[in-house]
Design goal:
The protein has helices spanning 36-39, 53-56, 86-100, 112-125, 205-223, 244-251, and strands at residues 43-45, 57-64, 104-111, 128-134, 142-149, 153-162, 176-184, 190-197, 229-236, 259-261, 273-277, 283-287, 313-315, 331-332, 350-352, 355-357, 360-364, 368-374, 398-404. By secondary structure, it is an alpha+beta fold. It has two domains: 1-26, no CATH class; 50-404, Endonuclease/exonuclease/phosphatase (Deoxyribonuclease I, Chain A).
């Protein structure tokens, strides 16, 4: 029998003469609060390689961090309201970026003031250099950014891409992309990194198709100036995995694309939503299913919902009739077990009142091999929605590792 006085602050007054055992009780291990988010996301190893990792691998993070200038409280459930302020979310975002320790950080929805006054100073102190492009228009305050770890990459040419082209009715929005060509210091290989954010409007998939085509053409133009330049293009494409927009970005061409229902071209209006009623009465939705590995990765499932309105057919302009990005077929860092019936993308990368599903992707060229990625969390972990205490944006980050072939 253990002595109940031994473990106390005063100790047992009988000492060695005590008839009971003097053994210390086992101590309960406490998990630091900062580790909770990491514990919810498992690292998935895809392919073991015999190549020397120190010379050939690099880690990429892509994240829509929810610009303060774009926050609309109406788009979020009541539980998210306290977590919408940038002052509340910024430290958690910085902590996540630092903890992931990626060699390349590709961000979307970055307010210019936050890029200049917070992100750049903080990331500079831990060894990153960054470039930024604000969206077009005087009334736009957010944009896209790329930060590269100076010890891993030497930044070369940076290119700003406007997805708004005068005289083209399908390229009349303020969306943009920022690109930078970098040399991997140890392997001496060249990589073109691109961070982009396409139009949100779920009913204007025709505009997103035109944006993807224009973006692909500009990326191809930049890469053509370098010999054997690999590509990583990531961001918020505002299109689901089974959509025409996703297919065009990944596979270069869009078959039978002369007539499309523009409301469904980006897939955002066709996602089946599974409803959960929270005890508070708020309805939560999430789209798609997930695999049996304990996380949401894989098998984005989608079924068309019958619409009361007839499909809105539109004829593509002549310049889009042979729709192509001019890029080779790209791979997706989060697609696993792809089949003809599903893309293998995760079930959910964003969760707010207007949409719950997968719209964020990290595409890469054939000169790279994916070795692993940070799995997406279970949708149930988001509660009523995000942002929240643990998730500082309404999108989750994508993190993957690559090696050069």
């Amino acid at each position: 029998m253990n002595c109940r006085h031994f473990a106390s602050t005063t100790g047992c007054k009988f000492g060695s003469r005590c008839r009971n055992l003097h053994t210390k009780p086992p101590q309960r291990r406490r998990t630091p609060r900062s580790d909770i988010t990491v514990a919810r996301r498992k690292w998935v190893t895809i392919q073991e390689t015999e190549l020397e990792p120190a010379k050939n691998d690099f880690k990429v993070l892509c994240w829509n961090i929810l610009a303060d200038s774009l926050v609309d409280a109406v788009a979020y459930p009541p539980s998210c309201i306290p977590h919408l302020l940038w002052e509340t979310r910024s430290k958690s975002i910085m902590d996540n970026l630092e903890r992931q320790d990626a060699d390349a950080i590709l961000l979307q929805e970055v307010d210019q003031t936050n890029f200049e006054n917070e992100l750049t100073p903080h990331l500079n102190t831990i060894g990153y250099s960054g470039v930024y492009k604000k969206r077009s228009g005087l009334d736009k305050y957010d944009g896209c950014a790329i930060f590269l770890k100076s010890s891993c990459f030497e930044i070369g040419e940076s290119v700003e891409i406007e997805l708004q082209q005068e005289g083209n009715p399908l390229l009349d929005r303020s969306n943009i992309a920022i690109c930078t060509v970098a040399r991997h210091r140890l392997s001496n290989r060249m990589v073109l990194f691109c961070s982009t954010h396409l139009l949100f409007n779920p009913k204007r998939g025709d505009i997103k198709l035109a944006q993807v085509q224009h973006l692909g053409g500009r990326l191809n133009e930049i890469r053509s100036k370098y010999e054997d330049c690999d590509l990583v293009v990531a961001g918020d494409f505002n299109a689901t995995p089974n959509s025409a927009v996703y297919h065009l970005m990944r596979h270069n061409r869009l078959s039978n694309g002369t007539f499309l229902d523009r409301r469904n071209a980006s897939g955002q209006t066709r996602v089946i939503r599974n409803m959960i009623t929270d005890p508070s009465g708020f309805r939560c939705y999430y789209g798609g299913g997930h695999g049996s590995s304990g996380n949401s990765t894989g098998k984005f499932q989608q079924v068309e919902i019958e619409s009361r309105k007839p499909p809105q057919q539109f004829a593509l302009p002549k310049e889009l009739e042979s729709m192509s990005t001019q890029l080779e077929t790209l791979q997706s860092a989060y697609s696993i077990d792809e089949t003809s019936k599903h893309t293998g993308e995760p079930a959910i990368t964003t969760f707010h009142n207007h949409f719950q599903g997968t719209v964020d992707y990290m595409f890469y060229s054939h000169g790279l091999t994916r070795t692993g990625f940070l799995a997406t969390p279970e949708p149930a972990s988001f509660g009523q929605g995000i942002p929240s205490f643990e998730w500082p944006s309404d999108h989750i980050s994508l993190v993957a590792k690559f090696i050069f072939k």
